[in-house]
Design goal:
The complex is a heterodimer of chains A (126) and B (618).
Chain A (H helix, E strand, L loop, with lengths): L4 E5 L3 H15 L2 E5 L2 H11 L3 E5 L7 H10 L8 E6 L3 H8 L5 E5 L6 H9 L4
Helix pairs in contact in A: 2-3
Chain B lengths: L1 E5 L3 H13 L3 E5 L2 H10 L4 E5 L7 H10 L6 E5 L4 H9 L4 E4 L4 H15 L7 E3 L2 E4 L4 E4 L2 E3 L3 H12 L7 H8 L8 H17 L7 E4 L3 E4 L8 H5 L12 H15 L1 H19 L5 H20 L3 H15 L7 H17 L4 H8 L5 E5 L3 H13 L3 E5 L2 H13 L7 E6 L6 H15 L7 E5 L4 H9 L4 E4 L4 H14 L5 E5 L3 H11 L5 E5 L5 H8 L3 E5 L7 H9 L9 E5 L4 H9 L4 E4 L4 H13 L1
The chains are: A alpha/beta (126), B alpha/beta (618).
């Protein structure tokens, strides 16, 4: 099951690298990186990843606007999206989930178990 | 030991500061409640003394604020309000103790000592390491009946090492504990104090390396029971070839290099925040600069948290919040304090690897190693770390018992598996007995903790003795560390923790009590009372084992089991049946449908669990 491709949309270079290292070493999945919402939508359309990790707080276009565009586009609406967000309260998490993402992963996350967390959320086998 | 004193009475501050400093505590003073909050939420203290009446924010509210923000530092409340109602108010606000003014300074220091002892789970007033004794009441250090003359900082260093005898203390930890926040000693100063302390202890007759240096990490007090074996182990060289970097080591190296690569960026971010604070001080902070400083602080907070620097992350978050609330010109000082503390935290993390390792292994299984064979211990630790398993080394069964008790009392992590070194040589009779008792203790846990015994003999009598005491595996020396770790992994995997059990039964009462009955084993339990939903729930839950009732409305357990066995994936899942019948015909039908086991109702929880565990093992 090493053929999964994940698209990460996050403007933080450090987080991009940590996610890439965590997922590639632990699960062997490929990670594509987009540094902004617009670039993310573009890559989601052309690359058709198996899942998208989307940061909520980004400059210019934030995660919530990016999500609504992804869901409005017939080419990307079926791709499961997981929000990445700084530690929030349970109510915030529920609010975010109600926007149409499969789940929310809070930062800081454990890069060693990130891939298995994603696999569990999406019902993938590792 | 570092204390924060929050009081506005200058005379009292003067008396208390002097007394506490004489007693070798580092003291920070805050003159009002808000300042107390800034200090308390910025620096680490071992204890906080709060006056009830304070300007800006009273002691009770400050105490509540600390507790609401998860600060667990012990708090003593000082007040002139006597009476039990006030005491109750104080204690309800989260204070640990309550002292009425006017008070006797000696009584206050005794209460401080008592609270700190409680904090350290150390009920003996005298701290000791073999014949070396430190008495916090008389401030005397005695070794084999001679009184040692130590300078104040050396005394406090020794006290710190004795109180944290099983931890590696970084230079940062030492500075935070021994110096007040207004002092900025260099690393060299700390090293010089350690050098002096070592020298004085050595002159008194203690081993030269009583305080051991761990390059890049810090210092720790040599474990006591290794002392006698000192000479044997100092010359040991490890001949094993360099281990191949595995997933865990690769991961760790990659994260470390990401941290190092972004060092210049962090420095730039700190400089940017400093610039913003300087502008605030002069009243020239533009809105656009404030907004970009907020973004910078937010980014720092996120990145530091990601690398396990939680205190640093918290400071960056505080700065972010302060900036978001459009700070007044006067608030530059608060921001400046926070930023200085933040810069110090970052600059002291030169070697981030241990910190990252701890962070990524936080949820990993814990292996407890009991024994004083330091070569085997370090080989085991290496092999365990390579597999992403955390280790705790304890050199004697007696210390292991104390540790275990402490972990339980403070709700800390218990080991998932244990390795015990056992000697059957005649001269080690007492030690052997203690080790066997320890093994029995692990057996008593619910669920029991598997113990791998490494013995120096291999005969039936020894194996029998270990088995009688509840040992799970017995290996004889020389044992291969990798083999031991593989065995530990098997033991961990066999444990019930997180195994998914799905129970289908129309007996609602049983479904309601099952979670409580099975709680100690930490299974993930899914219960279902309507067999018509069986297939859908099965696909979602993907259980490791199924428990089915025989007779249910609409579909019987036997029918469900037959369906399962026709499926390429589910044909292998262990299935246990629950039955009220002891009829042979029915039990034949059950096993013919592909069941693995049949348990009669009313169920005996312990028996059900053992049967579940046995089927999960196979």
């Amino acid at each position: 099951m090493n053929d999964k491709r994940i698209l990460l949309i996050d403007d933080e270079e450090t987080i991009q690298e940590v996610v890439q290292v965590g997922i590639e070493i632990e699960a062997g999945w490929q990670v594509e990186i987009a540094s902004s919402g617009l670039q993310g939508i573009d890559l989601a359309q052309t690359q058709q990843p198996d899942a998208i990790l989307l940061d909520v707080m980004m400059p210019d276009m934030d995660g919530i606007s990016t999500l609504s565009r992804l869901k409005a586009n017939h080419q990307t609406k079926a791709i499961p999206v997981i929000f990445l967000t700084a530690k929030t309260q349970a109510t915030d998490k529920d609010q975010l989930k109600s926007l149409g993402v499969v789940d929310v992963i809070t930062k800081p996350f454990n890069s060693m178990t990130l891939a298995s967390q994603i696999a569990k959320i999406l019902g993938w086998k590792m | 030991m570092k204390i924060l004193l929050v009081d506005d009475d200058e005379i009292l501050i003067d008396i208390l500061t002097r007394t506490l400093q004489e007693k070798s505590y580092a003291v920070d003073v805050a003159m009002d409640g808000e300042q107390g909050w800034i200090y308390g939420s910025t620096y680490n203290y071992d204890l906080i003394i709060l006056d009830w009446s304070l300007p800006k924010l009273d002691g009770i509210s400050l105490c509540q604020r600390f507790r609401a923000n998860d600060y667990e530092t012990p708090i003593i409340l000082l007040t002139s309000r006597d009476g039990s109602q006030n005491k109750i108010r104080g204690l309800d606000a989260g204070a640990d103790d309550y002292v009425c003014k006017p008070f006797d300074v000696d009584e206050l220091t005794a209460r401080i000592r008592a609270l700190l002892r409680r904090l350290n789970c150390d009920f003996l007033p005298v701290l000791s390491w073999g014949d070396l004794q430190l008495d916090p009441c008389s401030y005397q250090v005695i070794y084999q009946e001679q009184v040692l003359s130590l300078a104040a900082k050396e005394y406090r260093l020794l006290e710190l090492f004795l109180r944290h005898s099983q931890e590696v203390l970084s230079i940062e930890d030492i500075i935070e504990s021994l110096w007040s926040s207004m002092e900025y000693p260099s690393d060299a100063t700390v090293r010089s104090h350690i050098r002096h302390l070592r020298k004085k202890l050595h002159l008194a007759g203690l081993p030269k390396d009583i305080i051991i240096t761990v390059r890049g990490q810090g210092y720790y007090l040599k474990p006591l029971s290794q002392n006698n074996h000192l000479e044997d182990h100092t010359q040991i060289t490890f001949n094993s070839p360099e281990p191949k970097p595995d997933k865990h080591a690769q991961h760790l190296a990659a994260l470390t290099s990401i941290w190092e690569k972004h060092h210049p960026k962090r420095q730039q971010q700190l400089a940017q925040l400093q610039q913003a604070i300087a502008s605030l001080k002069t009243g020239n902070l533009e809105v656009s600069d404030r907004i970009s400083a907020i973004v910078t602080a937010h980014s720092l907070a996120g990145n530091l948290g990601q690398f396990g620097l939680h205190q640093g992350s918290r400071l960056a978050k505080d700065i972010e919040q302060l900036l978001q609330n459009n700070p007044s010109q006067e608030q530059w000082q608060t921001l400046h304090h926070k930023l200085t503390a933040l810069s110090q935290k970052i600059s002291r993390e030169r070697d981030i690897t241990p910190q990252i390792n701890q962070t990524i292994l936080a949820n990993s299984p814990l292996l407890l190693i009991v024994g004083n064979n330091s070569q085997l211990n370090s080989q085991l630790t290496q092999a365990a770390t390579d597999q992403g398993i955390l280790t705790e080394i304890i050199t004697s069964p007696e210390l292991a018992k104390t540790w275990l008790q402490k972990q339980q009392d403070s709700y800390q992590k218990l080991p998932q598996t244990v390795v015990v070194n056992l000697s059957f040589a005649d001269s080690h009779n007492d030690l052997r007995q203690e080790s066997l008792e320890l093994i029995s203790e692990f057996k008593l846990f619910v669920p029991s903790i598997p113990v791998i015994v490494i013995g120096d003999h291999d005969n039936f009598q020894d194996r029998l003795l270990v088995a009688r005491h509840g040992g799970s595996f017995y290996l004889s020396q020389p044992a291969n560390p990798k083999q031991i770790i593989t065995l530990s992994q098997q033991a961990i995997q066999r444990s019930s923790f997180g195994k998914k059990i799905m129970v289908v039964d129309d007996d609602i009462e049983l479904l309601q009590i099952l979670p409580t009955l099975l709680e100690p084993w930490k299974f993930k339990l899914t219960t279902l009372d309507d067999p018509r939903q069986f297939w859908d729930v099965l696909q979602i839950v993907a259980p490791d084992l199924l428990v089915l009732d025989i007779e249910m409305p609409y579909l019987s357990g036997i029918e469900l089991c037959k369906v399962l066995r026709t499926h390429p994936y589910w044909c292998k899942i262990p299935v246990l049946f629950l039955s009220v019948y002891s009829d042979v015909t029915i039990s034949n039908q059950v096993f013919a449908s592909g069941a693995n086991d049949l348990v009669n109702k009313p169920i005996i929880p312990q028996q059900l669990v053992y049967r579940i565990l046995n089927h999960l093992k196979s």
